[in-house]
Design brief:
The protein has helices at about 5-10, 15-45, 50-60, 65-75, 80-90, 110-130, 140-165, and strands at about 95-100, 105-110. It is mostly helical. It has a domain at about 1-45. It is globular. It starts with a helix and ends with a helix.
C-alpha cells in the first residue's frame, strides 16, 4: 500500500462514502502517475533515449539552458546532469561550445539529429493526445484540468510547507 494510503488509514474522524471516494481518488492518481511515467519511458525508448535524456534534450532546446539550474529544478545532482549531457554528446544529439556570455561555462545546442528525434517524440505525443485525450468531451477535459490544477496547487502547498518545516527557523 502506498505511504499516502497508509497515512490515510489513521483515524481522522472522517468515515463514510466521502472518505472511500477520497481513497479511491488517491489510488487512481497513483495509477495515473505510474502509467503516465511508463508511457513516457516507452516513448523515449522508441527513439533510443531514456526518459532523463529526453528531459535534458528538451531543456537544451529551450533558450539559455544551464545544467546547474536544471539539476536544482529537478532536485538531482549536477554530476547526474553532466553524465546525461555526455551521453547526449556521444549520441550526436547535442553539441557543446564555450558560452559567449560566460567563458567559464559551456553552451549546449541540439543538433539536427536531436531536433529530428524531438520531432518524432512530439508526433508520437500528438498521436496519443488525439487517440486518448480527444476522445473526451470539452466539458470533461475542462473539469479534469480545473480539478487537477486545484489538486496540484494544494499538494504543492503541502510540499512547500513541509520543506519550510524541515529547514527550520533561519538564524
Amino acid at each position: 500500500m502506498s505511504p499516502e494510503l497508509e497515512c490515510a488509514k489513521g483515524d481522522t474522524g472522517q468515515t463514510g462514502p466521502i472518505r472511500r471516494h477520497a481513497l479511491d481518488a488517491v489510488r487512481t492518481l497513483g495509477r495515473l502517475a505510474t502509467v503516465f511515467a511508463e508511457r513516457r519511458k516507452q516513448l523515449a525508448e522508441s527513439v533510443g533515449l531514456t526518459d532523463q535524456q529526453w528531459q535534458v534534450l528538451e531543456e537544451v532546446q529551450a533558450e539559455h539552458f544551464m545544467p546547474t539550474l536544471f539539476a536544482q529544478k529537478r532536485e538531482t545532482s549536477a554530476a547526474a546532469v553532466s553524465k546525461i549531457l555526455r551521453q547526449l554528446l556521444e549520441k550526436g544529439l547535442v553539441v557543446a561550445s564555450v558560452s559567449e556570455r560566460d567563458g567559464r561555462q559551456r553552451a549546449y545546442e541540439v543538433t539536427p539529429r536531436g531536433l529530428e528525434l524531438l520531432g518524432r517524440l512530439r508526433d508520437e505525443r500528438e498521436a496519443v493526445i488525439a487517440q486518448v485525450w480527444m476522445s473526451y468531451g470539452e466539458g470533461e477535459l475542462e473539469q479534469f484540468s480545473r480539478f487537477g490544477d486545484n489538486l496540484a496547487q494544494q499538494l504543492e502547498g503541502l510540499v512547500e510547507h513541509r520543506k519550510r518545516h524541515l529547514a527550520g527557523p533561519k538564524p
